[in-house]
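STRUCTURE REQUEST FORM
Protein name: O-phosphoseryl-tRNA(Sec) selenium transferase
Source organism: Zoarces viviparus
Requested output: structure tokens
Priority: standard
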Amino acid sequence: MNSENFSLSEKIVSTSYVRQGSQARRGHEQLIRHLLEQGKCPEDGWSESTVELFLSELAVMDSNNFLGNCGVGEREGRVASSLVARRHYRLIHGIGRSGDIAAVQPKAAGSSLLNKLTNSVVLDILKLSGVRSVASCFVVPMATGMSLTLCFLTLRHRRPKARYIVWPRIDQKSCFKAMITAGFEPVVVENVLEGDELRTDLEAVERKIEELGAENILCVHSTTSCFAPRVPDRLEELAAACAKHDIPHIVNNAYGVQSSKCMHLIQQGARVGRIDAFVQSLDKNFMVPVGGAIVAGFDESFIQEISQMYPGRASASPSLDVLITLLTLGASGYKKLLSERKEIYLFLAQELKSLASAHGERLLHTPHNPISLAMSLDGLQAESDKAVTQLGSMLFTRQVSGARVIPLRKEQTVSGHRFLGFMSHSEAYPCPYLNAASAVGITREDVTLCIKRLDKCLKTLKKEGNAAKSSSPAVPPCEGDTTGETELK
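Status: completed
Returned output:
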């Protein structure tokens, strides 16, 4: 409805009523105008009606929704199912063109505008979350692992002789396979144990650089968000080393946007040294479906180079999902979620500490990890190795998702590389443990239920262990053994 149509409506319905409707419409349009002018996340979230009006306006700008369109090409935004069309708000053309994921499509002005606005709004959120000097970013319809691969493949053109990626160990398969898929050889640097924490071995990184030669190293691949007792890498020191040796630096910031500490590390790393790009997941940080990531950095030309490396057009679904979410939350709503996450982290830590104490265990001291916590399982290990792994199964069947139970000395081969102590980020971590995390969206009710069910599981395992010990038959003494102590051979 434009002003002319509203004027015509006054001939049909009372003028005062039409003007009231017109004013309401202008309220929606003003919010949209501010978004187009500023390209930033609105401070206050939009209503669903405003979001849907905006998406409808974008959709009618795409050629597949033109009333008189006649398509004779192989890709004309045709959709067989009306349910699928509605699911995507009739934004069917996706984003980018065959040679550049960031390019504007002549047949899809609405989808192209969606793509540009999403990247702009997400950039604003990255700045609000702590990386204030970030220069550019784009949403890519791949999860974190493949997005890291895209970064490594882009660096290949800048460093054609490089074969190696120096990687402080973190036991997570996708980031390791990202390097393998890109065709490089990961050089695993074991972490050092400091108290309960596993931290970056900076001396070992330096030795690897000297041993391999800086010109043969594609990049250093570091990590922020991770499972305790692993803590974020020493990003400032790594960034300084990369600047010193002129080696690119890619940061896996998978779920670090929700942590002010992780974002501060990236900001400081870029300030004192070199960080070429950092990659983060959409679903873990913004509570949207799996399938998208953000590639961001401090050099706009390099981020553009990465986006141009993506072959072909791409799905607009991740961009659409995160834009809807951020427009609905607003900057204030997202900041509130981050604040609540921090509060619940402290609550989770206190509850885990109390539970651990009640069962003769302890909360591992990992102050440098702002998201994940770990509780020792020495008591269960004393019962049997089976009891430790059984706890994980019991929690899962009792609908406690996300808790990770880490046994001792597990071995795993990933893409031909053998890891000792896999999942513990170390070849010989001193105790088995259980992980729990306070991630964005968690509630106090989640924590309370988890602690209650974990307590029951631990009591059940202890009871079963005691019953097994009491039911074990005593070994009869051999003839002539007056003490009852017999050496079993």
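Reviewer notes: The longest helix spans residues 317-358. The CA atoms of residues 6 and 13 lie 10 Å apart.
Form closed.
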